[in-house]
Structure formats: structure tokens, C-alpha cells
Amino acid sequence: MDSENMNTSEHFENIERLLPSPAVDKVAFMKCLQELLGDQPDQMAAFVRWRASQERRTPSPPPTPASEILSQIKLLDCRQEYRVVALTDVVYLGTDVDIPLAKDDSFEYIIRTGGQMLDQLCVAPAVSDSMDLHGCITELHTPPSLPSAPAHEVSLPRFVQDFGHLWYKDLRNEKSAAQGFKETDYIAVIDVTTPKKPVWLVYDYCPENPLGDREPVVLDHMGCQRAVFPNVTAQFDTAQILASVHNWNDGLTPRMIERRINETGRVAEPVPRISNRWTLLAAIDHEWSR
């Protein structure tokens, strides 16, 4: 095919039909795209520009109600991959939705869907086929140098699905309340290996900057953490805020969340990476079959 025809909308539409969804499996999407375009950087750039123009022309679907998203999470059977993919599409591709988490007279917490989640592309397990990777579920790898949690502590989840960023509003005075919600570097995830699907907060050590690039950051205990959780005594980058997603209800308060963080929070320095599909499915099958 000559270079003129390779830059046509029809050519790019044909390529688009052959690609897997990037929301479902980003690695497979890029691998397939590179195979179809070959070693042609100009073609890659042209395709990216064409795809961006198509997305701008596509009207955004109406947002999924927060109650419906929370219901999907509660009802999610993680043994059924198509349901995990469907939830991922709602969280990643849908309009940003604010899911109420906890509120009292001093603070209000919400989980806002959409945007970039944990940077799982930093590390990928060695596999012979991209189909051996699961793009929807993140594996949290703990550095071996860190001591393991005591037997009485809640174990850090290995396989999680992230679904939104923690935002907060300080209601203690009119000035701070008028500033609205502020984003934190904590991301809400569920442990997919148990039917209870506990809810955790995981600190994002490599968040997006305003330009859309990932930049490493340090755990900000005295700044962000103290502003969001004034009653949390210790530094933490992971904490189980709900022992079961089914405990997520209208009666939650920020003090209840802080109390849970004081009980389960720790510095674990988890490294997010893409899950090996077969290891993940074996872990899910083992725990869900109990």
C-alpha cells in the first residue's frame, strides 16, 4: 500500500477494528498496533492523531449513577472475567462519577472514578504471549526487603482492581469548604481474590502530572496525609478501610475510616504491575471456592 493510502481514514478504521480495547488490555493493544503498523514512527503518530480526532467527535455517554457503580462492585463475581472487564469499562471509559464514601460535620470523602489509576505498566511479568497478561487487574508486589506483616495484621492484597481516586473536602470552616473537593494520591482498590472484596487505599507513588506524564513522588505524611486524615497517627501507603465492600453504606463517617486506617495502615511500598492471567485466575478460584 502506498504512503498516501496508508494515511487515509479508511486505512486507520481497518486497523482500529483489529485492535483489542486499550481499557481491557493496554499491553496487547500496543503490541498489536506495533505489529500492524510495523517500524514506521510517522504512521504511529498519524494513527494517534486520527484516533484522538475520532474520540473528540464521539459524544460522551451519560454518566453511570454512583449507586449503580457501587452496586456493580458489590455484586461483582470476579470469577467471571467479562464482568471484571465490564466494570473496568465503566470506571475507565465512562464520565467521571463521584461515589460518596463518608461524611460528617468536619470532612467529606468521595471516590471519583475515571482518570489514570495505578501505573501498572512499570513492571510486567515475563510471559511468552500477551494473552497471558490481565490488563484489568493489578498485582501489588511487595519488596522482599520489607518485613512481613505480623500474624494479627490484615495481609496486603496481592491482586486488586482500582476504581477511583480519593478526594476530600474540609468542612471545618467556610473558606476551606468553599474550595470544594481536593484530590489525593490515594487510590481506592478492591481485593478481587475474596468474595468479601475488601476495600483498600493504596498510595500512588507515580501519579500523573498536569501534562499527563507520570512522575515519581514521595509519601507525604506531614502534608497531604495529615490534611486528609488528621486523626491518623502513623504514616501509611496502604490501608484496608473496609473489611468488605458490602459494608459501604450511607452511615460511614470519616472517623470510622480513620479508625480503620489506624488499625490496618502501614508502609508497604507496593509496586503495581500487570497480572499474570493464569496466576490470578488460580488465586481467585482458590479463595472463591472456599
TrEMBL record:
<protein>
    <submittedName>
        <fullName>Uncharacterized protein</fullName>
    </submittedName>
</protein>
